[in-house]
Hints:
Layout: H1 9-19, H2 28-47, H3 59-72, H4 76-87, E1 108-109, H5 123-135, E2 145-146, E3 153-155, H6 169-186, H7 197-210, H8 214-227, E4 234-236, H9 238-244, E5 247-248, E6 251-256, E7 259-265, E8 277-281, E9 284-285, H10 286-294, H11 302-313, E10 315-316, E11 319-327, E12 330-338, H12 342-348, E13 356-359, E14 363-367, H13 376-384, E15 392-396, H14 405-408, E16 418-423, E17 432-433, E18 437-440, E19 451-456, H15 463-471, E20 477-481, E21 492-497, E22 501-506, E23 509-511, E24 527-528, H16 533-537, H17 542-551, E25 559-563, E26 570-576, E27 583-588, E28 594-599, E29 605-610, E30 617-625, E31 628-636
Amino acid sequence: MARFLLFLCPMCLLLSTTFFPLMAQPSEQQTRRLFFLCKVWGYYKYFHPGLAVCQGPDWDFALTEAIESIRRVPSQQAFELALERMQQYLPPLEQPSSPPPNLNNRLTYKLQLDWMEDEFLPRQLRTQLLQLREAFRRQPHCNVETGPDGRSLLFAREAPFPAMVYPNEAYRLLALFRFWNAVEYFYPYTHLLSTNWDESLMQMIPAMIAAPDSRAYHIEVARMLKRIQDGNAYLISPEFNQLIGMYYAPFELDFVENQSVICRVAGFETQLKPGDVVLRINGMPIQQLRDSLRSFAWGGHAAGTDELINDWLIRGPEGAFEIEVKNESGTHTYQKRRELDAFGFEKALPDEGAYFKRLPGNFAYIDLKRLNPSRTNNVLSTLLRGKSTPTALILDLRHTSLNFFQEFAAQFVPQSTTFALAAYPDPQFPGTLSLELEQQTGFSGVLYDIALFLIIDESTRGGGEFTAMSLEPYEKLLKIGSPTAGSVGAHLSSLRLPGGINVLFNTQLTRRPEGEEVHLTGIEPDLLVQPTIQSITQGKDALLDAAIAQAKPSTGRVSVVPFPNPCTGFLNVLVTPATASHISVEILDYTGRQLRSYELQNDRAIFRLDLSDLQSGYYLVKSTEDGQVAVHKFHKQ
């Protein structure tokens, strides 16, 4: 029995969130009253000019007072009286002297205000809300301002109430209502959420009321963050850090082939090896642990969520724990210790070597997660100039969140090219976004003309994804790996919540030039490559090996890779030929009828084929090298 006291902290979370007794739950009718209270309070907060200067009423207190009244007396009359009392905190609404706002220069007017006319609300309140709607004019707001980067938002004056480690019910609902309204008016991706944002509010109200202690409250905040499906979000809280754990096991995990696999071990660890499959921790099946954490681990898609879970699984309180693993020699159980903090953990892992270097075969390599942007030009000059120019450059964007697009795209894309459209929420006009700005590559005066390979996966997020997008116009580019985190953008907005919690989320709207969404889906690779248990066991980097293999001249038949697949107007063809005397590439329909024919030079190259006039459908790329034929399928959208 004693060993269960040494559970990994996520296991404690599993037990505490599964078996705690529920507090008095609101009825469906009472939940609906709180739902409308949230909407009314939030609309007044961001649109009433008397609340925009932060010198008037304590609007948070007005909300908590209304919540307590509604919860204390569960009747429609008490609900309407609570709304009326809350409104009494507001200064009189003055009539505007300027004309109504012109929305023609707004990219998005995402306000959904039909709820104001719902007959569940008192008639007088509905009239007052519509009057405020008509009277609103764009205005500076003390509670939401543009951050130092000119793009992100700061909700700097929101009181965090740090002493409330476990806020009472009213302040827990304040946390929910504050977050819900910030997302409603300033998060540009509510239209992509898997659950309607109004429906999420109805579900989160009883869950937040039910949280019986500090641990459960912080988990509910994490679940709120999970609902916006932002792979670049963060939850910063001393209490939450303690829940997950401040100390690290002597290994790193990856989720490979649907199993939790040790991928790196600390230098002092002698029993656990890369490639070991974790079966149990302290007797708890690892999949059960993953499932418990998945209920509040956030991410843009499943792979991104698993990456966060991998980190949480190896963390816990300082001390001993038991781990059961499986490898080629059988099943083994070991006693290990968590005694490294985050800094010590990073130092204990094997040295990754130089972050930029020449690889055998005359290739250059840069690990962007360790590159300081200010060093980019020096690193490129060192690697790509000199007596022996490399034949290819490999940029490793794994675990990269910084934005390098200005540093790299300007030196590979030969002319100003639009690679994305971006827009940002307007803090002075909630619910709208600025005009969509074309994100363009520039020209630095130094231009490199070699094959470029990007290594990407679910750990490539935010600015790293933006960097990948900026290089996509480069004709000699190939992206290798798996889809990125699906949260493109480098501008995170910060919002404080009761309990000393700070949540950060992406408020940059990013699309491709033709309008295609990249949020949630991420940047797709041209060549899908993922690690395997075997490659990890053998100490290989499957993605880097694939990039090197594509860069190397072939010693056999021609290798043809069409990308992107699916494609739109253009199809790139990566050709790695042998020393053949004749190489041809044909585009065929599915009956084998030839539609295009190309004769290619006998050297390694990437060719861009204009297929804009082809109809949508599936086609074949047929390559021939001295009579030997290879065929690939691709999809034209």
